[in-house]
Amino acid sequence: MSEQPVVFVTGGGRGIGAAVVRLAARRGWAVAFSYLGDSGSAEALAAEVRAEGGRALALQGDVADSGFPAPALDRIEAELGPVTMLVNNAGITGRIGGFLDMPLDVMRRTFEVNVLGLMGLTQEVARRWRAGGIKGRIVNLSSTAATSGAPGDYIHYAASKAAVDAFTLGLAKELGPLGIRVNAVSPTVTRTRIHADGGKPERVEAAAGRIPLGRVGEPEDSAEAVIWLLSEEAGFVSGSILKVSGGG
After folding, report:
1. In 3-state terms, the chain is what percent helix, strand and coil (to 5)?
2. What's the pTM value of the predicted model, to 2 decimals?
3. Which of 111, 167, 187, 200 has the greatest CB tally within 10 Å of its CB?
4. Do the strands 181-187 and 137-141 form a parallel or antiparallel pair, or are they unpaired?
5. Which positions are annotated as active-site residues?
6. What is the CATH number of domain 6-188+218-243?
């Protein structure tokens, strides 16, 4: 790995991604993160990191765009150094609702962002690591919906996250001989805007009663798990899917 680790967090402008950015910077890592549209919040986060003495770069772009990975990685390398850690956090639920009424274009977009976009970026990153002999680290953001199926809410989203789980397990075995570790964090319902974006903001508080520890997740709960999996302390952990679910 480089003298200063460089972590790239997709969808890092808010929610779990922003919490990962803050914690990574406090570890002394240089941080690049992508965001889709809210440039104000993204630049404010980057400025916050810099004000605390860290190095940060905010990149606007859509991870589902096949033209996104290479230019983004080139710019990060030019300004911060080669990426040594990747956090595939960007994700959408699509519209929340029953499967029988879910439009195909909503389901397609969900898979384009959550699965194909994640795979495309990971492929470009891992190819660069192989060429440069970098023993990088990858953490994918999954969801407990991958194992519950999320009936009545977002079966299509649950299916996309089940794909992320399978991808994590397979990629860890394929890249392990290169010294590259691949893991996932699987949060339960977490207090972010993803549910409001899907049309059901009340879903967050309604879920608290179903969680054994009696509350929904906070972004920092999952971010701490991500940082641990990226760290040297988890040096022999690969192919794991770490639930951050309050016992659910």
Report:
1. 50, 15, 35
2. 0.93
3. 187
4. parallel
5. 157
6. 3.40.50.720
